[in-house]
Amino acid sequence: MTTTIVHADSLAATEEPHWERQYLNLMHRIWTQGDERVDRTGIGTRSLFGETIRFDLSGGAMPLLTTKRVYWKTATREMLWFLTGDTNIRALCAQGVEIWTDWPLDRYRRETGDQIERKDFSARIVADEAFARQWGDLGPVYGKQWVDWPTYEPAGEGLFRRGQGVNQVTQVVESLKTNPGSRRHIIEGWNVAELDAMALPPCHKTYQFHVSRGRLSCLLYQRSCDLGLGFAFNMWSLALLTRMVAQQCNLEPGEAVWTGGDVHLYLNHASLVEEQLAREPYGDAHMAILRRPDSMFDYRIEDFEVTGYAPQSHIAAPVAV
Ligand SMILES: Nc1nc(=O)c2c([nH]1)NC[C@@H]1CN(c3ccc(C(=O)N[C@@H](CCC(=O)O)C(=O)O)cc3)CN21
Ligand SMILES: O=c1ccn([C@H]2C[C@H](O)[C@@H](COP(=O)(O)O)O2)c(=O)[nH]1
Fold first, then answer.
1. Whole-angstrom distance, CA of residue 62 vs CA of residue 41
2. CA of 65 to the centre of ligand 1 (A)
3. Average pLDDT, integer, range 77-92
4. What is the pLDDT of residues 298-312, one digit of tens each?
5. Which CATH fold would you assign to the domain 17-73+80-85+140-154+165-307?
6. What is the pLDDT of residue 13?
7. Ligand 2 touching residue 201 (CB < 6 A)
């Protein structure tokens, strides 16, 4: 007779690991094995190239990190702002979203010599429209390219005039509805001709959608990722966009597939890395969309409800400008 002894350990080992393990393992690998290099910001990073993180969106699950609090409403407001096509930080600052303020602030300080505090700069952007017009614009970044990619048409004698802009978001929703099997469902931010005019060239640059068995998946290619700060927002936003597009196309949410080119940790994020790697992920967040807006451009912040999110405390870390 053979007796099978099942250890608690081996049972635990057969359980699916928490999705966030992918993130923590990547963080650990970058910190211990990443190539240490001088980067554009001068802070220095450790970096690995070509990484993937996958998340199953079934049943309303959302990829919100639990090993630190992530301000998903801030990231959601940013996504809604992208979808308006706006590239001025004024509308963000007016909602208390300051994640883009440092870049216009940096330019203002450099060009005027006025060492204004960030909160005063932000308040002035909100209060003074002309000031915002002059100092608050990021150039033709994400929103502009997503909903109004510029086109030009011949105007005779070798001259060109502005044509109708391309709304890639509308086109993708339309192509998903009418031709779901297509391999061309893409929203692209990398407008080569306009990179110089942008405060930062797009990081989350390409979104590709895919329909299989009534489920909508999306793959993001992010050329450059600040794993300590940006990733939490980028992963959330990828899932959020996928959920919104799925709703508009009457599809079930599939998978969010995140891929990163240069994935890095800034050297001044040591205490964040140490603290976060000491924590265990637990629980899983879900999101409901409380109504079905008429189009991709009619969502409001109140439409999103997150449940089951009980994260560990926020870990502050400086942003490299
Ligand atoms: N170095 C760097 N990292 C980024 O993640 C990043 C850039 N630059 N430049 C452009 C945008 C701006 N994004 C940002 C900027 C700041 C935060 C940030 O400070 N997040 C804090 C607090 C968020 C809040 O105040 O609501 C966090 O702990 O997540 C996140 C994303 C993402 N991008
Ligand atoms: O959505 C975003 C936007 C930016 N980042 C990070 C990635 C880099 O750390 C910087 C951008 O610097 P580049 O020299 O242009 O690569 O911002 C992010 O992680 N997510």
1. 32
2. 15
3. 98
4. 999 999 999 999 999
5. Thymidylate Synthase; Chain A (3.30.572)
6. 61
7. yes
pLDDT of 3 over the 70 cut: no
Residue ranges of the chain that CATH labels 3.30.572.10 = 17-73+80-85+140-154+165-307
- Ligand 2 probe mutation, 99, 204, 224, most atoms within 8 A of CB: 224
Q: What is the pLDDT of residues 146-165, one digit of tens each?
A: 999 999 999 999 999 999 99
Please indicate whether residue 203 is annotated as part of the active site.
yes
User: b/e per residue, 218-239, with b = 16+ CB within 10 A?
Assistant: bbbbbbbbbbbbbbbbbbbbbb
Counting beta carbons within 10 angstroms of the beta carbon of residue 273, is it exposed (0 to 12), middle (13 to 18) or buried (19 or more)? buried
226 is in an annotated binding site: yes
- Which has the closest alpha carbon to 320: 103, 20, 129? 103
The secondary element (H helix, E strand) that includes residue 159 is strand 159-162
